[in-house]
UniProtKB/TrEMBL annotation:
The protein's name: ABC transporter
GO molecular function: ABC-type oligopeptide transporter activity; ATP binding; ATP hydrolysis activity
Family as reported in the entry's similarity comment: Belongs to the ABC transporter superfamily. Lipid exporter (TC 3.A.1.106) family.
Keyword flag DNA damage: no
ABC transmembrane type-1 domain mapped to chain residues: 1-65
Keyword terms: ATP-binding, Cell membrane, Membrane, Nucleotide-binding, Transmembrane, Transmembrane helix, Transport
GO CC aspect terms: plasma membrane
Amino acid sequence: MPSAWLGVVAPTLATFNSALILWIGGIRAVEGHISVGLLVAFQALVTRFTAPLTRLNGVAGRIQDFAADVARLKDVENFQADPLYARPGGGESTRRLHGHVELENVTFGYSPLDQPLLTGFDLTVGPGQQVALVGGSGSGKSTVSRLISGLYTPWDGVIRIDGRRLEDIPRGALAASVSFVDQDVFLFEGSVRDNVALWDPSIPDEAVVEALKDAALYDVVTRRPGGIHSRVEQDGRNFSGGQRQRLEIARALVRRPSILVLDEVTSALDAETEQVVMDNLRRRGCACVVIAHRLSTVRDSDEIVVLQHGTVVERGRHEELVARGGAYAALVRER
């Protein structure tokens, strides 16, 4: 705030001084008390005198910027290292996981000053199973997906994959085994293959084709000049919203993950295409955690977990939950 005030006050005073000198000096010069040369000389003298003060104001602003930069550096130095980068490496770092996910009594929040968003959360997903998370906005669904993906570290409780604590799993194994797709679609200028394989030459074209087929996009791509090498504009502007989502799904599938986390990734698909994609994901046999606003997406899941304010209020299959007439049945009626 002081720097902002100085930035306004100093130029204003300099302008006011110049105007005052010209006004009074002009009157005195007209009356013959001083010469025009003396007025010009005095104006130049005042300008030379005020220029260092104006520059001093700039120095004060730079000092404040420097202090802010130093504070940021200190914050980075003193902040605890991200557990993701503290995980072990080694020869087994790329060994693929089987895909048995377990969250036990997990508590998590975004600020230690607020109440935790999730409290005592439990979840188990096995290979080939599909578990759906449903609930209103702010219920904690997306937070769970990021915890499973290793993007967040729980405050309390434990997350295990294949019986191993998540923080003990090498980074390479986690990256090779877990694919996370959220609502934000990021496509780059290049080819379809580039966007699916992310410029990884070790991924064969066959794997790209298989991923596109499972994402129900292969027929669309083959109709374009160049097939999988056809052009994608920045942000996928030459694809529709549903096609962009399916490209993102294909990117997640191309490395054949054993754990797949999908956060509202079929919102732009029609019901028929969405069902085809979900059936293809089932056939892949990976552990799948699905978050969807449209309940038709999750009705065939092995388990549906209903969240309210970070707490599990119901869990079971679609038919069971509808028959209970509880929170899930209310969501079905609303949508």
